[in-house]
Request: fold
Amino acid sequence: MSTHPHIDAALAILAELGLPRAQQNERSALCLLALLDLTPARKWKQAGSPQIGITPMMGWAKAHYGADYAPNTRETFRRQTMHQFVAAGIAQYNPDDPKRPVNSPRTVYQIEAATLVLLRTWGSRAWKKQLAEWLQSRQTLTARYARNRELEQVPVQHGKGKLKFSPGAHSQLIKAIVEVFAPRFAPGSVLIYAGDTGRKWAYFDVEHLKSLGVAIDAHGKMSDVVLHDTQRNWLLLVESVTSHGPVDGKRRDELAVLFAGANAGLVYVTAFPDRMTYRRYCADVAWETEVWIADAPEHMIHFNGTRFLGPYES
Reply:
């Protein structure tokens, strides 16, 4: 990678802004420069504020500074630099659409407005004064951004209280499964597990699942929602499908192995938000499974032919 005064300056700026040592590195410096679109030929007072995603950011760093990062370092950029930039109030996350799902390929970041004003003064007499004012305002601004993100979360009500999930279509479907599907087709059931795009193990009643003969560690590929129908002693393993596949033959086998020790019957369910999404995947749905469509909540589609909702013997 070619060296340039802008990279050295970005490293110094990150230290002065109070970023932890783990973020005071060339990767983070290049992320800052990309957020400002500060190419080698531009001056700090010419810094811009484009909206840019992680992959374009990596491409920008290679094109302008010769930094060639492997594609599999994308998560390092996101988790070890941009996450901290957002937490510190340096960058905004999806400013154009705060409701965009956390795993959306269209996720973008943008330099925060007051930070842009500050960074344009780097190397000038105004820097120290502007920096002092910026540092004084950070805690309040960061708390405000966190509050805004909190307001966008999806609340999910279940028998033991309320959960909050990352914004997006996937979480909305999880909410429908817990609040609409379960009362209709498994009344009185207990929520054992619910996953989130932002936090895989958003809710997990480990002890309840253990009481049914199943112990799963953090590497187990859980269903998006697991419900225990206590009246019929069924475990309903529900996949929430908005952009990924349904319970096909392979996934059904995976779940059968994962829950092999269960002393409850296993029911495999794929949930879709609407019939349009269902039509895209219906050819892949495995036999001896069930389908529920959120925009027609009173009905189910049974891929079996011998009976309605219920477990099958292995």
